[in-house]
Amino acid sequence: MAAPRSTPPAIPVDRSRMPRVEIDTEALKANWRTLDALSGKARTGGAVKADGYGLGATRVAQALHDAGCRDFFVAWAEEGVSLRAGLDEAGHDARIYVLQGVFLADVPACLEARLIPVLSNLADIAAWCEGLERVSVRAPAALQFETGMNRLGLDAAELPVVKAAIAGGALDVCLIMSHLASADETGDQTEAQRRQFLSICEHFPGVERSLANSAGSFLGLGFDLPRPGIALYGGRAGAPSDGKLKPVATLTAAILQVRTAKAGEAAGYGAAAKLARDTRIATVGLGYADGYPRAASGAGVPLRQTRPGAMAFVAGHLVPVLGRVSMDLTLLDVTDVPADLVEPGTRAEFFGPNVSIDAVADAAGTIAYELLTGLGRRVERV
């Protein structure tokens, strides 16, 4: 019989030049406290789906738990199972809600991990009730209703079926939810959703209610359980949030080479950056494979016809991205930074306290959510 193979020892690798995102858990806690203060007597939760918006769900949830958060929202049961394990290991009890419903096969995992599924259609309700009946147990669920976003949610016309399931003892409901579509942009739709949500909640007296996302929290729509997401991580949540949130994630990468190119030359793929002056170029080890979007390029992409490209921060100076972002590398124009401050190993900040993540997102024609959740596997979380 062959001897079992041993696991080879890990080969040490120097990651000092690789991209990293530094996570300020104190800023994260401060943002949660800011949002919680807006909620009055409500209990403020936190969205930690998509692996804690790309920053590590367990780490984020543990920090939020330390701040006082006891309600967490994930998208899938698998995320909830992983989060429960992390919280249990740290000795933290909490309620974990699974936003995207439940299949029959998910029910055992939800029960074992003490997850609360958010049921958004009659098939969800049937699967949950059947799964509970099979093992002769009862467990709470949340209900999500459609109020104007036309995404996930039960329709008001389905209320009789829902109420019959509750009356028959098959369904225990602990929370009524809906989701705001445009609270960061316009008031008319938000007010219409608020009114419809209240009319639905009248059918469930005494049951807790949850409507507010980040932007809704700043509008006083917390009800019993606001569930902010992007604002926790320092992203903008409409005009009322301006100046009230701290940046949580700082994306940096090291300069690998500095070179000088002559006026009239070009830089990057497609010769997109035409150099009008002698230019010192810093080549940084970060690219779209790491989640830094090509659309943030300084030139050579369609968005540059309507808005400027992204900026970075090097040695106390804002500097522009030069030419096209490539898979693993980004060029920066560091001509105006003192030469003795820029050398291989110097780290450039691509978003964080000196470069707003929302400004970078705007330059790339996207939103802060996508920048955070799109951070690649090569980006070390520290």
Summarize the structure.
With 382 residues, the chain is α/β, with parallel strands linked by helices. The protein contains 11 helices and 17 strands.
Describe the structure in your own words.
With 382 residues, the chain is of the alpha/beta class. It folds into two domains: 24-236, TIM Barrel (Alpha-Beta Barrel); 249-381, Lyase, Ornithine Decarboxylase, Chain A, domain 1, CATH 2.40.37. The chain is 27% helix and 20% strand. The protein is built from eleven helices and 17 strands. The strands form three sheets. Strands 1, 9, 12, 13, 14, 15, 16 and 17 form an eight-stranded mixed β-sheet that branches. The chain has a seven-stranded parallel β-sheet with strand order 2-3-4-5-6-7-8. It has a two-stranded antiparallel ribbon with strand order 10-11. Helix 1 (25-38) packs across helix 3. 45% of the residues are buried. The mean pLDDT is 96.
